[in-house]
Amino acid sequence: MDRLNEAMANGGASATLDDVARVAGVSRATASRAINGGNRVSPAAQSAVDDAVRRLGYSPNPAARSLVRRRTDSVAVVVPEPDERVFSDPFFARTLRGVTEVLSARDLQLVLLLARPGQEEARMLRYLRNRHVDGALVVSHHRSDLAGQLADLALPSVFVGRPWGSSDRVSYVDTDNVAGGQDATRVLVERGCRRIGTIAGPEDMTAGLDRLEGWRRALAEAGLAADAVEHGDFTEDSGERAAAALLARHPDLDGLVVASDLMAAGALRHLKAQGVAVPDQLAIVGYDDLGVAERTEPGLTTVAHPVREMAAQATRLLLDQVDGGTAGTPMRVVFPPTIVRRGSA
Amino acid sequence: MDRLNEAMANGGASATLDDVARVAGVSRATASRAINGGNRVSPAAQSAVDDAVRRLGYSPNPAARSLVRRRTDSVAVVVPEPDERVFSDPFFARTLRGVTEVLSARDLQLVLLLARPGQEEARMLRYLRNRHVDGALVVSHHRSDLAGQLADLALPSVFVGRPWGSSDRVSYVDTDNVAGGQDATRVLVERGCRRIGTIAGPEDMTAGLDRLEGWRRALAEAGLAADAVEHGDFTEDSGERAAAALLARHPDLDGLVVASDLMAAGALRHLKAQGVAVPDQLAIVGYDDLGVAERTEPGLTTVAHPVREMAAQATRLLLDQVDGGTAGTPMRVVFPPTIVRRGSA
DNA sequence: CACCTTGGTGGAAGCGCTCTCACACTTTCG
DNA sequence: CGAAAGTGTGAGAGCGCTTCCACCAAGGTG
């Protein structure tokens, strides 16, 4: 019983399937079956094994298991973004919630891979190449052919937000950001604004570019000038700076389309400091509607997109690939954005 | 060459050490040695292996490796907290930065384990018991004997912030929160405040209780009443609510010690809405100094603690345990807090 | 010149698990 | 009532890797 006593130390971490089988008086095969769902196991054997497991505090060695199963039962959420932003933008929190929802129902572990562009990107790719995880969900990604690289890896992967580059080689879930930008702008046009500027997202993200394109189209269709553009990086501070720059160059602005609520909140801060009345002197439309928009003063009229559902959907697509054992044919799901009206426009 | 061609698909994910050995014309043992640091390997063999690795795009199977090494080369950061807070409080971002700093220098992977108290806690413990990771860093933890449970598991683990319960059985890194609370209160006393209330942290966290105790001691030593207490949960909203409740009950307050800057920002919001002048009518001292304090209006006088360094230190303690192959003797490191003066007091 | 070192190597044993397969031993049905 | 089908079981072959050990060839000692 030496072996068994030893096995019971360490909270049972060192008990092996062999120990369980021996204690239960069955073969390793039967013990394994009993532990994994109990297919084709007699009630007697099942309860003997259950007992042994309990007594030994046995818990299976995941390395051994995934070695033979070729499954790690974990998926990575890749965020190619400095942690500052990840931990301040409600977008990520909401996204992660959508992911965990789906993942925990299947008892899969989430591995968060924060990788600022640079050397960490290589590390991240190595991690994925080594198949530490069964699949990858890429969340906010900047110019780079990550999509192509993942496709080359043949690792199940889904992007949240249309990727740069080889967007035809991977699956992704997105909202129609062009339509969103357009709708936001139309709100201002219909309100009577004639001089509409925009604080756009980063130029190295598709969401940033698409929303900007929507703004352009709406202005073109209204016959208005589309020359007041400033780019931010989706953070509140960048929104404040951009607003300052924009108003310095175009003091006659009476409408502002902002590519994220966080940036809009920054812009609002600047406007308040300058004593500009919102929406009377300058009307503002934001983007996201993840809580920030209801807390600003005045509340932000904004473009809502179903972030949690998108993330959940992306995760489901990923699990389909994982289950199919293939990176499969690229799928895309695009959600429509909707306008939510509050005080700012 | 069939096998090898197949091995080269999938970005080399399916090439095995055997393939490498065959291509390099050496044994599996030599190939393994060459790949892992090249001890006792001739230059010729080394370069043959390097070549083969490159040509095959080989990358080792982590499951197989950790099966025999009994190491996963990853550590968990456990956050027993709803994601809302994790992703809004700068404390976590800063902590994570400290952890990654140390971890990436050693090429260890961080696995973020978000586990709201409840069923997810069981899942989290199971994950740790199964030894999916080499060690655990517990970050913000509420009443519960997690410390004892981890000690029972004999898994290397370190707490950031003194744990509840069996704090003598695990290592931890902390700041002297009693001293911090006391110093914060003294700032107000010295300023001439005679009626000092506090918005304390949650009653199920040691940091919350310790800071409250500091407040009590400082008031006792000044001979002032210590009866104006309201608890928050470290979020901005809870700070706003607590301030409202506190001022309703004690309209004569002229000083306020708040257990986190985020809550202080919330309190400030309430005071502004009520037209209370800070610091003239009511002086405020916050806690943390992680960026929020410099952005409020007025800036917050606050208690600073070295969060990044604490996390880094905790990670180093953890790695020592991991390297020693033992949960070792409990160590504790306590950092002193310092006062940072701004406009609010 | 017999004697150890020393450095480089490959054979082979395992790490802890899953899963195929063959072998009983029932039960069911024409 | 014999054949076919179904049920529970264990032996054993791996999964891909590290590492112990035995071995061989050189080169350095007395």
Task: Explain what this protein looks like in three dimensions.
Chain A is an alpha/beta fold. Chain A folds into three domains: 2-69, 434 Repressor (Amino-terminal Domain) (Orthogonal Bundle); 74-175 and 308-336, Response regulator (Rossmann fold, 3-Layer(aba) Sandwich); 177-305, 3-Layer(aba) Sandwich (Rossmann fold), CATH 3.40.50. Chain A has helices spanning 2-8, 17-24, 28-35, 43-56, 62-69, 83-86, 90-105, 119-129, 146-153, 177-191, 206-222, 236-249, 261-274, 292-295, 307-324; strands spanning 74-79, 109-114, 135-138, 157-160, 171-175, 196-200, 229-231, 255-258, 283-288, 301-304, 332-335, 338-340. Chain A has a six-stranded parallel β-sheet, with helices on both faces. A six-stranded mixed β-sheet of chain A has the order 7-6-8-9-10-12, sandwiched between helices. In chain A, α11 (206-222) links the parallel β6 (196-200) and β7. In chain A, α12 (236-249) packs across α13 (261-274). Chain A is elongated. The A-B interface holds A 9-13, 59-64, 66-67, 72, 83-84, 86-88, 90, 92-93, 96-97, 100, 104, 107, 109-112, 114, 120, 123, 126-127, 129-132, 152-155 and B 9-13, 59-64, 66-67, 72, 83-84, 86-88, 90, 92-93, 96-97, 100, 104, 107, 109-112, 114, 120, 123, 126-127, 129-132, 152-155. The structure holds a DNA duplex (30 and 30 nucleotides).
